[in-house]
Amino acid sequence: MSGQRSTTSVVPDQPTQGRRSSAQPRRRADGKHVQRLLSGYLPLLLAVVVMMAPLIWMLISSVKTRPEIFTVPLQWLPERPYGGNYTEVIERYPFGRFFLNSVIVTAVGAGVKVLLAMFTAYALVFIRFPAKKLIFILIIVALMVPPQVVIVPNYTLIADLGWQNTYLGIIVPGLGTAFGTFLLRQQFLTLPRAIVDAATLDGAGHWRKLWHVVVPISAPTIATVALVTIVSEWNEYLWPLIIVDRPDMMTLPVALTLMQNADGTNNWGVLMAGTAMVVLPVLVVFTLLQRHIVAGLTQGATTG
What we know:
Distance between the termini: 81 Å
Radius of gyration: 30 Å
Helix content: over 70%
Number of strands: 0
Mean pLDDT: 82
């Protein structure tokens, strides 16, 4: 009887111990998984908050009245959105002219830059000519040269040509793009040579191979170069500020300086409204097409 009682008391405990032993590793695995998520995503979340905070504050301030901006203690949200700042920007300043100047400079400058990068990268990969490696090394060196270094020579040249306060004076000095050439060259090196050789056997010349073979395959990388160039051209401030002194030729970033000099530091609502009108168009374009940047950067990243 005692043996039977001992067996009946031991047998029910075995499944419980098994469940406990199997649950402990699961809890440890779940804890490690949560820890990895926190360690990976928490820094990214903090970085997003730090980067987005000025943009959010700019948008909020653009719909505040002047007393609400200077209220102490700080008033985070307006009692009622105020659209008079945007109306004042359009009525007081030739904002349409500023916008047109930026569109022309960005479209022409970015378009020519992308074309030059495509042609140069194609020549460096698919055409044999002397000193090709040396030219590529010079392109890499150009990536390390700050653009501020060439401001004085460029200004002297543009002034001698009489291109001050012109679109040519704004666009031409920045047409060289070492970054785009380097990125497209790395992408073109990853293309299967058999496809290009097959086009050559079919009688295709370099122009046809570029537009009908190389460009369709490399579309994500070309889109990446185009988007980065568009954002850079749209936000360019220093060179247009130096070469332009007439309001009718100012681009949007330079026009913000004109607005700040006219209003001083007493009308931040109008200045924030103008800044929002400068930032939002390119931000929308960048957000809609950002997936091409990721695909393009990873597409050409396998070849050294």
